[in-house]
Amino acid sequence: MILKVLMLIIFFGVLIGIGLYCRKNATDVNGFVLGGRNVGPWLTAFAYGTSYFSAVIFVGYAGQFGWKYGIASTWVGLGNAFIGSLLAWVILGRRTRIQTQHLDTATMPEYFGKRFDSNMLRVVASIITFGFLIPYTASLYNGLSRLFGMAFDIDYTVCIVIMAILTGIYVIAGGYMATAINDFIQGCVMLVGIVAVILAVLKNNGGFLEAVNNLAKVSDETVSAQPGVFASFFGPDPINLLGVVLLTSLGTWGLPQMVQKFYAIKSEHDIKKGTVISTFFALVVAGGCYFLGGFGRLYDVDVANVGFDAIVPTMLSSLTPFMIGLVVILVLSASMSTLSSLVIASSSTITIDFLKGNIIKNMDDKKQVLIIRIFIVVFIAISVVLAAIQYKSSVNFIAQMMGISWGALAGSFLAPFLYGLYWKGTTKIGCLASFAFGTIVMILNVFLRPSFPTLLQSPINCGAFTMIAGFVIVPLFSLITKKPDEEIVDDAFICYEETTVVKQTTSLGE
Q1: Domain residue spans in the chain?
Q2: Which helix (H) or strand (E) holds 221?
Q3: Phi, psi (deg, nearest 5) at residue 75
């Protein structure tokens, strides 16, 4: 116990120290929200990865999908690495950095407002962002309860309050730069931790081959009559597995807190390096998490009574005290890094895109930073209350909101943002149609789920459906509505035409 507590004290001390050290970089909106657009490839790549993978992935999704699909759940991690990271950086990275700097935007709603010259788009996007990031944040705490109960035997509410306070301190003090540096440290913990945990769990099950052989012997007639299905290449349900891959991989392209990382990249060289680093990080962390979860059925877990969140903690309960301490710090790192990213994205958008110019007419840089800091406190407090209510009352609604949040945000924003970067014909009506469809469908999925087609009753499949539908809705409404003003469009795209002189190692020239 002394060892575990000491590890936590050192971990928290480093995070707060970095937050206080970075105060000098958080004096204006550009510095507080984007780190002055001067963040290097390692920090950006790790910030992207740690914001991507939280305790929900490590404890909740890895356990749930590993139980449902067996070792085939590793495909989710591979999708996260190659679609959610590699392709996201290649397709979105450069154009996002160039156009958002040209338009002088710090948030995704602000981008929509300036790209399409529409304050309504900006306000609506800010409301959707703030509204659906709160339950997403609350869901982060769910994965911590059983692990802290196993490792420290302390009340879950105490755990989430401590975590929220410590995260709030370094985010409020140092802003994005403190978050990015801490994300790098937390990412290193996650990389080392997940590899160590996988090796320890496989060792406890007789090694990799023995674990796979034992998994092949597991049968569940309620899932599939096929023998060895949980050790097979595609698992018992490849269609629903594909839905998970799409939502958790392609969905990140439309999440404000993820896309915002591209705003802060320093240079072209950093984008290329960040692409490689981010993909490697996702391959190890996401691939490792889902690979680990695939062996969940080797353990005696009464899922019907204790739920999927008990699977991974049960797998880890037999580890050494040092390994358990490492796991706790691993999950804390994953949760705190994602939490810090969410609170900055949410508080900045409600300040810059909703209050500024609409509620408060005159708001200078210092006042904006102050209000952002106030909303960070409010945002964290609301998410803590929701998480505590969910835990104390055993209400599943909030726990399910992780999938609903991802589906609503990505279903609303993914297609409009991607088309906005690449296609001059995109209109604000096309964007609004996507906003409305993604949000309404996911809200209806909460309250009228039995009325949905069987395949779409899962929030994950429904979220994947809204994302794909957006790629049809945006061009359809853009083609049948009034064309955008040519002057506004040309101004948004002229940044791509500017001449840049580069070395011959990059281009041979004429």
Answers
A1: 2-389
A2: none
A3: -60, -30
Residue that the structure tokens 């591979």 belong to:
78
Q: What is the CATH number of domain 2-389?
A: 1.20.1730.10
320-326: long-range contacts, CB 8 A cutoff, minimum separation 24: 320/200, 321/1, 321/3, 321/4, 322/3, 323/196, 323/197, 323/200, 324/4, 324/150, 324/151, 325/3, 325/4, 325/7, 325/8, 325/151, 326/7, 326/189, 326/192, 326/193, 326/196, 326/197
Q: What is the pLDDT of residues 312-336, one digit of tens each?
A: 878 877 777 777 777 777 777 777 7
501 confidence band (pLDDT: 50, 70, 90): confident
The pair of structure tokens assigned to 434 is 């996507």
| 360: DSSP letter | B
End-to-end CA distance of the chain: 67
Q: Over the stretch 434-443, which tens digit does the pLDDT of each residue have? A: 999 999 999 9
The reported pTM is: 0.85
Question: To which residue do tokens 């040092």 refer?
Answer: 322
Distance between CA atoms of 311 and 448, rounded to whole angstroms?
29
Q: Which two tokens stand for residue 486?
A: 């040519």
Distance of CA 120 to the CA centre of its chain: 26
CA 402 to chain centre: 10
CA distance linking residue 48 with residue 265, whole number of Å: 11
Both tokens of 335, joined, read 């949760």
